Amino acid sequence: MKKKISLNINHNVCLEEFKQGNNNHIDDLFFLIQNKKNNISNINPPSKSDHKKFCSDHPYRFWFLIYEDKKLYGSIYITNENSIGINFLNMRGKWNKEIIQYILQNITPMPAKPSLVQSNFYCNVPPVDKEFIELLEQIGAEVSQVSYKFK
Q1: Does residue 136 carry a pLDDT above 70?
Q2: Which of 3, 17, 74, 103 could tie 88 with a disulfide, CB 3.0–4.6 Å?
Q3: Is the pLDDT of residue 118 over 60?
């Protein structure tokens, strides 16, 4: 994939592939974490130094920052297990559906591995995040499992 992708829907919306060592990208991702309403893995947001270390390890298959008119719009990452992490500043944003559909149409899931990797992309969503659930249902996503955590 290209390093910077302008979407056909609007050339002012672009996905920039995360670049290790790019302090603007690191700062923008940190801003997103600090401002996310419903977190699954970052119940307590990381420190800036922990976040920078995480970014330098770049654990994802793909990692995009999304900008509209050069202003931060959100981010999306895709893991090697076909999980998609979606973080929009506004879950009712104008381009959310189109951005997700672009990803689904232009990136192929990794091959399935029994008990390890699903054959399709999937997205984990906090059950209280009704806006996110509504967005995913509007683009045809279906509930595939319900997960519980142990304390």
Answers
A1: yes
A2: 74
A3: yes
Q: Which amino acid is at 33?
A: I
Quick check: 148 pLDDT over 60?
yes
- The verdict on residue 97 lying in a domain is yes
Residue 80 in any domain: the answer is: yes
**pLDDT for residue 31 is more than 70:** yes
Amino acid at residue number 82: N
Cβ proximity of 102 and 1 under 8 Å: no
Q: What is the mean pLDDT of residues 23-37?
A: 91
- Supply the CATH number for residue 94's domain: 3.40.630.30
Residue 109 lies in a domain: yes
From CA 90, how far away is CA 46, in angstroms rounded? Answer: 21
Domain membership of residue 102 as a residue range: 4-138
Domain membership of residue 146 (yes or no) is no
Q: Helix, strand, or coil here: 129?
A: coil
- Contact by Cβ (8 Å): 10, 60: no
Number of domains in the chain: 1
Q: What is the pLDDT of residues 6-16, one digit of tens each?
A: 555 666 888 99
Tokens standing for residue 143: 């509930």
